[in-house]
Structure formats: C-alpha cells, structure tokens
Amino acid sequence: MTDKRDVPFTLEKLQAAFKSGELTCESYIDAVIERAESLNHLNAFITVDWEMLRKAARDVDQSGKAGEGLNGIPLCFKDNIQTGVLAASAATKALAGNISSASVVAERLLSSGALVGGMGNMHELAFGITTNNGYSGASKNPWNTERIPGGSSGGVAVAIAAGIMPAGIGTDTGGSVRLPSALCGIVGFRPSMMRYPSEGLVPVSHTRDTAGPMANTVKDCRILDAIMAGKNDSAIDEVASLSSIKLGVPRAYFFDNLDPEVGRLSEDALKKLSDAGVTLVEADIPNVGELDEACSFPIALYEFMQDLPAYLTAHVSHISIKDVADHALSPDVSGLMASLMSDGAMPESVYRDAINVVRPKLQQTYADYFSKQGVDAVIFPTTVLPATPIGDDETVELNCERLPTFPTFIHNTDPGSNAGIPGISLPIGLTHDGLPVGIEIDGPFNSDERLLSIAEALESVFNFTQRP
Prior knowledge:
By secondary structure, this protein is α/β, with parallel strands linked by helices. It has a single domain (4-289, 350-462), classed as Alpha-Beta Complex (Amidase signature (AS) enzymes). Helices cover 41% and strands 15% of the residues. The strands form 3 sheets. An 11-stranded mixed beta sheet has the order 1-3-2-6-8-7-14-15-11-9-10, with helices on both faces. Strands 4-5 form a two-stranded antiparallel ribbon. Strand 12 and strand 13 form a beta hairpin. The longest helix has 28 residues, at 288-315.
C-alpha cells in the first residue's frame, strides 16, 4: 500500500475498491498518512490531524457506507476554505487557529461523505502565484523540488500530484486553481461565477473569487463539481464527441511570448486535436488584454479592502485588517498590504469604472466571440512558461528577459477570471527538462457541464499519464 502505483488515486477507483472490499477506508488512510509523512519535505500541508483522520476512516468502515458517494475519500482543502474541522488561516499568522463553521462548498462535500484530509499550503492570503510563503514556508513542485508548484492553491496541487491525496479543493481569483494544476501536471477547474456559493471562503474579491476542484482526471473534477454545485450528477457520464467540438484558437495575446517548450507542446496538442477530428477556428478575441488590464487589479484590490474586513467581523471579530497587514510575513504580500493600508488603496472611482463599464465590455466581448465564431470554447496555454525556481518572487526569466512574476504567470488565466466564465486546465506533456505544461479551455458563461464534457474528450486525446 505504500507504493503510489499500488494505490488507486481516482475517485472512481477508490469508490470501487471500497465497495468491493479490496480496500478498507482505514487501510487506505494509513497509506495516505505514510506517504504524506515520507513526502513531508514538499510542504504540501499547513495543518493535518492524522489521528482524527484515522478515526473518521474507522467510522466510515463501521458504517458500511465506504464507497457510497464520497464516503471515506479524503480531500485536501486549500487553507482559505472553512471546513469546520481544521483551521482555515489563509496561510497568514493573524488568522492561525481560525476554526469557523464549514463553508457551503465544504459542507456539501462533507455531507456526501468526504473527509478533511488536510489543509493545503498556499500563497499568503492568496495574493500570489508561487506558494513561497514567509509564514508557512515554500511548497515544492514534486516534479522538481527546486521549482514552484504555482499558486495560490499550490499545496493542494502538490498533495494531488505527489499522490498523497486523490483530489482537493482550491480557490481561484485570477488563476489560482488552474495555474498550480498546470505546473504540477493535474486537472484544475474554475467554474462560472456564482455556480458555487462563496460563503465561508477567506476572500480577496467577491466578484472574482470561486472555489474549484483539482484532481488527477476530468471525471473526478466532474464528480466534485456536481456535488459542489448542488446538482444531480446523472449527466457526468456524458463525454462530448470529438467531431462535435469546435474550439477557437485566439493566438493574439494568449500565444504571445511563449516559452519555447510551452509553445512546442501547445502546438503538438492542437495538432493532436485536429487529427482527432476537433474543429479549430483561428480567431482572436478583440482587445481582450486591454479590457482585462483595465478591470483586473482595480476590482481585486478595491474589493479586498471591503471584503476582508467584512469577513473578519463575521468570523474572527477580534482580528482587524491592520492585524492581518502587520503580521504578514511574505515580503511581496507584506509590501502590498502596507501599500493598501496607506496611500496605495484603489480609488473608488477607478473601481466603479472597472466594475460597471469595463468588466461588462469584457463579458460582452467573450459572449460575442463565442456566438460569432460558433465555437464551444477557446483553447490556449494555461501559462506562458513552466514552473520557475523557488525564490523568483519578484521577477522570472522568460525568453532571456526578466519579467514581473505575478502578471507573467496570470497573463492567460486572468481574462476569463474577470469575465466570470468557466475554464479548465489539462496536462498535455512534459518539457525536455521534465516539467509539466497545461492547456486551458474556457467556455461561455454557465456552459460548465458542456465544458467539462469537452474537457474529458480532449483528455483522452492528450492521454497524459506521467507522474512525478
């Protein structure tokens, strides 16, 4: 049971093994804990309680319900998602020990039988993409431990990619589910805004924040999505016919300045899809970069200064936003917080223009694109470069040039985030240096089930089975 290859890591396989008696929940959890301890150097978790998890596993076995729904299956929750079981600190010192009532998405998963396997490490306050955290330490990419796993849901991605947990739940504001999924070689899904309730998430921006499932397969993301959305899961077996799929390829902006290996693997992926019968439409999305830039940070930074104080008042009233700012230990986050608390706060007039004028234009631009081009989704590299060295928090090297780390990594994931449309990242291959690369498809607002059905079809073409 201690060898990763001997343990079934998809939700479906776990359900079948539990039902058949091939595995007991307790024996599986023992293997999970043993593997987690052996890979402790990856720093995937902020908080675990192995004895509590073992007891929960024994209770599932005694109930005879192992394998029904999510009964007996441990999930890694990002540390900004309240579970009511383990503390959700958003990986920042001021919120250490914050055990509040379960978020709606966690409650739905736990009601289906899921176990809280642990709280995943993350970029402090979800304000970054490296998961190099001055408070909780850096999470390490299991493919190369000198590289970042991405963020801000980096610990969840590490736990899944390293074979510790079968799946997990992250949050995504500008790419924080899809980015680490791409850099760690797993699947990550950001739903349409408002598909899942956001109550019980430590917030950045109510307009942009959403939880999102992360797993080894699209099917597993579909299983979690149906539960998180409070929907009947009867439709998740449907997989789109490859010949019925029509994808837009927006090369301007989304294919600009790619790392050569990302470019090579992305072009290989497009050729595989075309050869498999998928229709590709070369068509750009007008002004997508300009519209995204004009609404991205104005919305996130203004709403953060409203949403976090409201969250603190509701859940940890003895903590103020000043306390959070004063105790931020990651240099990039500490500097941003200090700026926001002084004269660097986003002006309300800029925010109002972004939320009332620019964002609707961006949303309409996407809607018009899908309609006029007649495509189901757009496809593009999730990130413009693979995982970079831990410590490159301010700048990264891309094509012999040092560029700002955060905007470089969120370049492709951010527009869909601001438009509020669904997107999913799929692994497509490894660079010559052995680092995973992901490709993303974004669909029209509220096309989540169709997008997931398409993603499962594409996954069969890419057939990425490598593991670190």
